[in-house]
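note to self: the first set is below, dont mix up w the second
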Amino acid sequence: MRVARPGKRGDERDWDWEMPKLTINDRPIEVAAGTTILEAAAAAGVVVPTLCHHKDLSPVGSCRLCLVEADPLPGQVAACTTAVSDGMAVRSETPALVDSRRMILEMLLAGYDDSGGEAARGGADDPKHEFLRWVRHYDVRRPAARPPRYAVDSDPNPFIRVDLNQCILCTRCVRACAEVQGRFVWGVGYRGAEAKIVAGLDTTMLDARCESCGACAAYCPTGALVDRMSLGRPQPDKRVTTVCGYCGVGCQFDLEVRAGRVIGVASNAAAPVNGMALCVKGRYGYDFIHHPDRLTRPKVREYLLSGRNRKPGGDRGPWVDADWGTALSLIAKKLHEVRNSSGPDAIGVLASAKCTNEENYLMQKFARQAIGTNNVDHCARLCHSSTVAGLAMAFGSGAMSNSMRDVAEHARAMLIIGSNTTEQHPVFGTMIRQAVLHRGTKLVVADPRQIDITEFAALHLRHKPGTDVALVNGLAHVILENGWHDEAFLRERCEGFEEVRECVEKYTPERVEKITGVPAGDLRRAAELLANNRPMAVIWAMGITQHTTGVLNVLALANLQMLLGNLGVPGGGVNPLRGQNNVQGACDVGALPDLLPGYQRVADPAAIATFSAAWQLNRAAAPEALSPRPGLTVTEMIDAAGKPEGAPTRIRALYVLGEDPVLTEPDSNHVRGCLSRAEFVVLQEIFPSETAAYADVLLPGASFAEKSGTFTNTERRIQLVRQAIDPPGQARPDWRITAELARRVLALRGSAPAGAQAGWDYAGPPQIMEEIAALSPHYAGVRHSRLENATLQWPVPALDHPGTPILHVGRFPRGKGKLHVVEHLPPAELPDADFPFLLTTGRVLYHWHGGELTRRAVGLLEACPEPLVEISPPDAAALGIDGGCTVEVASRRGRMRAQAVVTERVAEGVVFGNFHFPGEANVNNLTIAALDPVAKIPEYKVCAVCVRPVKPPAPAPSRTS
């Protein structure tokens, strides 16, 4: 209990916590008031058996296995629900308690049967199988086998095997689904002896809207719910803690390894971002690692080995397996020849957000030092380049300002705009659900689609695609009209306020309604919710950034948070969610055409001097200065690769690491044409992707499970990636490939490293990180040794610095935050009579990015085997389309075919497509390459299309007719 004691200032009081003293098995212990006996025992190192209890879940005390004796309380009490008291004497393992536990286990065993299949991998030896472990511990005899009451494999879920014969009704699955995932799939149905866990109203898990996250199986102590991929597999030889290779949330988990193969993924309760929570891709999407499509040795085109030239646009000819020496020598020779004859800017380099910080650092160093060009970019150009540019203009820093857990635990309100959070960043989506459910956080969702998270929203603002600036300016108008802005914050920490006030005066709710389609009353209500529940966090993703007005959209959101003073505080901030696992880190270490590591501009004389000296080649009085001219972006490099000889901007050689531009760039037909005409393309990948058809050399890299290094997640958290297995065949970690190629290129140039960080002989990723730290102030205090037992959020300016969980506390990097005047501009392409629909694009839960990984994960492909196009019921009726019908969607650039889903998730006049499938199923056949003028990001989220049903082929005539 809390006790008030007189303070030092008259009537004021200081508050102290009373610490009850008790004994557990005669051992004295002191704990905080409110601590349960079970928690006190754990603190004292005493193990009390449990089944229904888990530290992450609310205690229910239903299994009674944790009974203890606790004087002065009479009888035996449940340790998980009984609080300690001062002077209590607890005994955890008396003969009477042992008898009680044996009786409880006998009763549970009477209704338990695992004869229909393995309880879990390894049965009672599985560390996750708590029930049989306690049965064995207390030497409880199992009753004679009896016929199972339920079907052994009673649910068709592709990821989770359900066997209710092994269920003891502990309800951990029910609480895990509700309290971790926030999905409420599981419940207890029926009564008395007929009681059982049920999905939904006793239907299948997927029909009950299960997201297949596996939390229920992870928390199940009996094997009633178990990962289907684990059935029949032996215990692992080792478990290696690493970071998920999918989205930017940065979940940690344990890879379970046996005989050099990954055989499972297990939750790791100590994971700093996610704890036990994982999404379906992280938990079940690992089998791509061992897919037979893996590249296992270098391949080169036969014409290269014979010394022949290839006509641009002509057939590249057959592949030939080659050794590493041959492949790297061919690449080095070609790059050297292009550099000498056409200059370094005739070469382009694409780095990868799938690869580690260390590997991306080496790729941009290779481009700038070994080649001499700033033509280096990666997929951040296609997802958050407008975020980086916009936030840098507003604050001087282009990253997420707060942490996901900070937002989930402290925000009183949230605005999610342009982010399908529960499908794109599922684990963070579950945190937001819990914030709404348990803390009453006020959630406003602005999205053209009725995405799943809108079910938890106080208000859904369903605006037209491409009208974000008008919507946010309308919110600002209402806030200023009512005097809800933070005058002190604006006066002390910001500039440009009066100009923005004048601008947003024009954006009345009535005018905004005409532009966006959002009712004026809803706009006013949303502004009131967001302004009067502070701190408020703004969360966005590619629905904001992938527009020709992407930078303007970001500036509008920055304005909103400055108006409300929601910066530099827990639970507030600007929170862009990065799409790929290391897109934040690839930006941090300089894989951008205009920025060096640490976001130092290539045109900054001081930065040029620093990096020129560090990467100096050959001994001279002064180092040769790096180029101060920003390079081409990824979209510009692809376009330049298709230019004919003599064109003013032409890329003759393109080096692609871990990206698939044919699948992910807008206007895929244009990309195919450019790459088919490209003179020389190198692709360094783990699979033969769509881009491989246009490559001249294929180099086999390593997956996230096969190398070490670091990823930096969306909240700037730097985490260790640990190698669990060896790469297949002759595949190599990407950092080793880049380093050896650089040495060969420099040797052909006759250049030798002279600067402190100019060399390419690395012992491993820890040494590369030391080089990053030496050149990037954000990472100055980062070392692999520090990350072994902790994670750090940059900036980490010194070795003794703990990292920075919240940015902009007290001041902005640019000094004062700058509000910018932003006006609504229409998208580059709007519907007309020929193309009457607005197309918007995005992800689905079961796939990620271009699908190269998830389409090679058996369960994920089974859950979502084909592309889907969402269309509203009125539009579908007008076109004669029903659910399951194949449709053709066309734009001015190309066509795609997909299965139609008739749904109210999209508004009339809008269709939605996902971009996870290749060929004619790729929605990027349709998208437009119109670019934001500042960030050069394409407008994936809006273009004009037409839709028509595709008639099924006529049935073949029967032989009897």
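second set (the one i keep forgetting abt)
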Amino acid sequence: MDDPTLRPTRIFVGRETQLSWLSNALAAAQAGQPQVVLIEGEAGIGKSSLVFEFLRAEQGLPVIAASGEAAESVLPYGIVHQLAASAAAVAVGSLAGLRLLAYGPPADADPLAVGVELLALVSSLQGERAIAVVIEDLQWADLPSARALLFACRRLRADRSLVILTGRPAWTARFGEGWARYMTGDPRSSAIRLPGLSIEELSMLCRQLGRSQLSGRAIRRLAAHTGGNPLLALALLAELADDALEAAGADLPAPKSLAGLILPRLAALPRPARDLTHAVAVLGDHCALADAAAVAGIADPTSSLEAAMEAGFLIERQAGLGRSVAFAHLLIRRTVYDGLGPELRQRLHLRAAAALGGNDALPHRVAATHGPNPDLAAELLAAADIAAGAGKLQLAARYLGMAATVTQRGHSRDEFTLSAFERLVQAADVAAAEAARPVVEQLAHSARRDAALGQLAMFEARPSDAIALLRAAWEAGEGEVSARGEAAVGLGQVLGITGAVTEAEMWLDRALSIGTGSELWYDAARCIRSFAYALSGEEAKSQALFADLAEPAASVPLARTDALTYRGIARLFAGDARAAVEDLSLSVQRMTKGLQLRFPGPPLAFLAEAEFQLGHWDDAQTHAELAVALARDADRDFDGAFVHAAAVSVAACRGEWTTAIAHADAAEAGARVFGGLATGFAASARCLLGFARRDPEEALRGVALADAEPSVDRFDSAAALWLRPVQVWALIRTGKFTAAHELLTSFESRAATHSDPGARIFAACLRGTLAMLQGDLTQADEVLQAGRLAAGDLPWPFHRAVIDLQHGRCLARLNRRGAAIETVRAAADAFAALRARPFVHAAEAELSTLGVRSRAGDDPDLPGLTQQELRVARLVGVGLSNREIGAQLYISPKTVEYHLANAFAKLGVRSRHQLVTLTRREDRTAYPN
């Protein structure tokens, strides 16, 4: 039964332009420039055939492959499982050391952690030739796999890898904006929109089928009727004789989803082959051959599989364990499944349920159910509760959605639908929750409904909608403690961000007052309340909320990691940056290993701030940029102002103006949505940028941004650390001494009551500067000397260097040249160790006025390295392997290898040992304390 209609991949014509495109992409990948190519087109247009033909011509190219399937689009990490199995078949041992891929990522695994392992896997498969990663029908991919894959694609750098994706038009709609932004904005990505076959290509197709007698007119009719769709054209060519295609005035018949062609051919198969094909259609686009045989009732499926493959229905795939079988094309599978009568379909789903057992049987039992089934709904509810208890919220949502389909219309079905939506929101699965929102909005108003919709609105940066919905939830929630708790937490969060601080604190206190301490939302309320205390300068109250949290950080249970994060933030605002790093770095480690946090943005952003204070600027820059990337990848517009503000600090102080300005602009864009606290962080970042550029007008633009938001002065701790001190500096620089004195007096008063040493150091520096410019050098010397003594042994190298530089200027004006040179040189050395180039230049200019040349060779920088090369070099210096470095920096091991080779060449070293020696020598110079 050699029917070309059912074997589209065995006939191929044309597509020369597209094949050339793919060949060029492979050549670039082979040269170490990774490529991601999307082949987009409607069903049956020949996407799979194009990929097959390209790979057939590239003999010896290693390939790992996977494909999406509509029935499995809700199975977490289905695509990733396929890729791992394919890799295991291509290279034995390729999964060694990859914990998540080797055993299959659990449903609640963090896409970030899975993406890191995908990077490592792709890197390990590269040899002399590039590796091809093929994923077909991406529109049916499960969301966790799509996110992990996007994360990996974004971070391919020097890898010899070609990623080929196929998908339907508008396939990105299910996945949020991340994929769409990547495919249109990343230089490594490109798209091929596959059109229908041209008339010339259809003529070639007809000749290959032995239909060379067809006239040009008949072929043009065929092209017009099918739009050049190869699968539809093949179907008609198989159905109609030449005279029917040539007949004038007669309309060509339309294939009815190929059923009229495929089903008779299927009926002509031997009974066992037909039964096996039916079984695979019920189990999905692909499945284990053993499972299909069990459903079909076939003891030995080998001969049946061969018959189905020969007819073009099924193909056999390589798998890590056992044999796997799939349909040759999605349209064929759908046609076969739709052609099953209701009775046969029900019987096969019941057999599938019996063969699979456990929770894997639940979808088939649902498919076999006609009408309400309270017992099955109860089982699904129990499975959902177990999944939720294990933190697998997306899986719980799937079970609850299935429960709704087997429940009678009315209150119970609405409850299941709402519960599924709540789980998606609690998992911060914005794309899936947004897709479900229209259905949920049709449900009757209730506290739970409005609380969940309100929290989704907050994630999507719709603060006005969020506030209205959350208020409605509280009002409607009399007696519903859980719904009211979630509503109060959401209001505390969104009102605090938008600037209604007093009301936000009231809602958080309400949440804490109605909870017992065991609820998930109770811990969230405690975290946000501690943040409000810390920002308002009440550090003791902020830390007291976590008095029950274990010491050291490693003793804190995984379930309390959000609380660990916010304890770290409280410690940061209290001036204990080292303790903050201990807490926050552990939160980040847990997150990168797959733990899903309710608040995923703060750990990285505030760890970056703590590292900035301690002088670990490379780490700070890495973590801040990662915070930005993860917020963007997850479509969490809610975090935008904060993470971009965190990314300004190092870039600005190192004079990386393009990067710093881009982040400052992005922070302000996020602040325009929320106002309030978001404005405070954006304004502070703008002020720091102005300070680093020695541009008081830029700094005052940040001040104007803050002053337009009345609530900003409530946040007089970290958010004000740069805002008000830099405002005083800008006023001094523009000659407005009276205004500077008044603002500085207020700032000094607040700094004296806080435990934040940075505020006290800058207060002294500014007071000394003002005294110098007003001619009182004696007072300036006393104030600056006191500030230097107050800094003492604090591990705050940048802050100490700033006051050292200013004190050196004062000493020079007092004609104490020797002391001035010593003090300014100490500042210059500290700035050089941090690579704070604008400040190095300022210190060198002061030394020049003192008649001193800058020291040649004193810069401990590793010369000529890019930022990423420096990061890789320093991680080599602490003994990490390439794979471990890749996991920390979210790049592939092959990219690590690329950066390391560049570093070796630039530094003139030949071994990791020599590089370790250099980096350790630099670290001793950079961080002497």
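remember for set 2: Confidence is low (pLDDT under 50) at residues 1-9, 856-861, 922-929.
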